Amino acid sequence: MKLSEICRTRTKLQSGALTLPELVSGFLTRIERDNPNINAFSQLHKEQALVRAREIQEKITAGTAGSLAGVVMGIKEVLCQKGYPATCASKMLASYQAVYDATVVERLLAEDAVIIGRLNMDEFAMGSSNENSMYGPVRNPRNHSRVSGGSSGGSAAAVAAGMCHATLGSDTGGSIRQPASFCGVVGLKPSYGRVSRHGLVAYASSFDCVGPFARSVYDVSVILKAIAGQDPMDATSSAEPVPDYPGLLENMRSDITVGIPEEYFSDDLDPEIRRRIMDIAKKMEQKGARLVEIRLPNLKYAIAAYYVLATAEASSNLARFDGIRYGHRADMKAVRAQLKAEEAAVAAGGPANSQDLDTLMIRLYKQSRTEGFGPEVKRRIMLGTYVLSAGYYDAYYGKAQRIRRLIKQDFQEAFSRVDVIISPTAPSTAFELGSKVNDPLQMYLTDIYTISANLAGICGISIPAGDHSRDGMPIGVQFMADAFREPDLLNAAMLAESVCAAGADEQPA
What is the C-alpha separation between 424 and 476, in angstroms, rounded? Predict the structure, then answer.
């Protein structure tokens, strides 16, 4: 088992070899030194974190501390944290300050985690590179000219750079697993309904999941246990009992059945990534796992179905940000003056257009959304509005829903034969900053291996696949398991983690 950073830190704190204020101060020093180059943290809670560290240190000394005492964490900007801005990295919410804690934040605090700051992300969680942010892009800690992945790029980069023990991100189509792959850390997307979404600013409500990042499978299991479970504030959260994930991992099984889907290992996959994933699968087989070839025939439709359904939900969810009730508001005086000037021009015999008939409120709404949303968010709102419009609903949205059901059936059939499915996490390593921002289709295809888990509502995890690639960047291996089968998922990921660690000395640094 890879050494757990959380366990190692807990041992030092309990023995008195380290104090929590010292630990937090060390992380703050590293953040202040490295964050200007990486841009993972959008907000740093320096004084508040130190005060909380002193309070929890007293609990540690008294033996009354919670399960996450000593764990220092960062929170993605999409999750509400009372008293702090929850901007979603968007100008639309630049002035919004959360008035309550997300349920996952409440649960972290109840178990005595220290939250050290908030993390950069793609605007409203829409992106695969963390370049769509009002804070600027997040750079990959391994190579500052490369992307960190998205939309939870700040969450992945903060862990990879050693700025904290663990972080929370959100995953709508791969936004935890893909950046975990790019940055060389562990990222877990729970089953839909396993973790409460209360306090998560919605992108696509039937897809969104909250999950953890850390540097080992065991450590993400510790965080998952703390945040999982039913929540009366989220009607979609499940009443399924929460297992003792870390406890189950202490008795890791190797006699598992691993499915290898031919659709994920086509000729289009980078040969180095294919070799790395298959090498891990074969080493797992040597440890006792059984490999089974499977088919998921409807996966070829996953990207198209996802970008119809997710953008449709996004257009509905973001309609509330109108500059009147919610979100950024344009300058009312400027809008009124512009409207009066146009009305005067029409009255004087000038050319008329549709905007001349706008009321002040409609014009304010348009101008506020024009100023508040970035290009990628606008693109997805327009796509979603189009597929929901009269005459196109059945042709696009209705058909995509039927495909989603077929993809879920494919997975159900596969999981009747296997415990987990192995695949690449991403089709490449982290790409150069700016290389895909003008090609939306190529950007969307970076999530080709992760989107299907969100469509099916199952759980998935990405772990580092051993050594670096030929370009010096991390490669991720993904495992997927059936809904609420996180124990199987974590078991398989830990087995793979162990074979990767065993072979590290044989691989180039």
Answer: 6
Q: Following CA atoms 154, 155, 156, 158 in sequence, which dihedral angle do they give, to the nearest 10 degrees?
A: 80
Task: Identify the CA nearest to 166 among candidates 235, 227, 254.
Answer: 227
Q: How many residues are present in the chain? A: 509
The residue from 42, 148, 151, 462 that is catalytic is 151
What pTM value is reported for the model?
Answer: 0.95
Read off the pLDDT of residues 216-268 as tens digits, 9 standing for 90 and up: 999 999 999 999 999 999 999 999 999 999 999 999 999 999 999 999 998 88
Q: What is the pLDDT of residues 273-317, one digit of tens each?
A: 999 999 999 999 999 999 999 999 999 999 999 999 999 999 999
Domains and CATH numbers, the chain: 5-246+253-298+406-506 (3.90.1300.10), 302-398 (no CATH)
What's the confidence (pLDDT) of residue 347? 76
User: Quick check: is 151 catalytic?
Assistant: yes
Our answer to whether residue 145 is catalytic in this structure is no
Asked about 283 being catalytic, the answer comes back as: no
Q: Residue 295: CB partners within 8 Å, gap ≥ 6?
A: 261, 262, 263, 410, 414
- Show the CA angle centred on residue 373, arms to residues 367 and 375, nearest 5°: 115
Q: Which has the closest alpha carbon to 367: 354, 376, 358? A: 358
What is the pLDDT, as a whole number, of residue 466?
81
Separation CA 216–CA 463 (nearest Å): 8
Closest CA to 128 of 473, 373, 407, 449: 449
Catalytic residue among 152, 175, 221, 452: 175
